[in-house]
User: What shape does this take?
Amino acid sequence: MYTHGRGFSLLELLFAVFIASLLTLASVWGFRGFAERSQRQLALHTAVLALDRARSLAVIRRGRVAVCMFNQARVCSDDWSGTELAVFVDANQNRQRDADEEIIYQQPWPATRLQLRWRNWRNERAITYQANGSVVSNGTLSINDANGNTLDSLVISKPGRARIVAGG
Assistant: This one.
């Protein structure tokens, strides 16, 4: 008398492999979304840290302190498309770091696929804090994706406070 061995049929094995591949695909998509959200949060917190530091140091030092994005030549880029977020003393008030002006803080921009854009009514290239903690020009610092879509924004009021606006 012949008895069947214990095991799985080919159809059952194919079905199990199909379900496992669907679960793997779903987890990869979920991880990709998690990584993008993490990079976005890191970029937002890096910008907030630089702004808070600049405002505090302007008050402590009783002078102008500016924030901008340095390009490869370590000069403030007009369109904020640089590689390092920098805080520096702006002694001559030209909103550009000169050779004799101290760099207080600089941080490599952590999100290579995200860009900062500074929009203000004076069309200045740097965010400049005065000795009382206020800014020379209020505006919006936005975090954009590679297509230019605004993901998050920091609205900087005239008194110098930054408010996070999620989703643009």
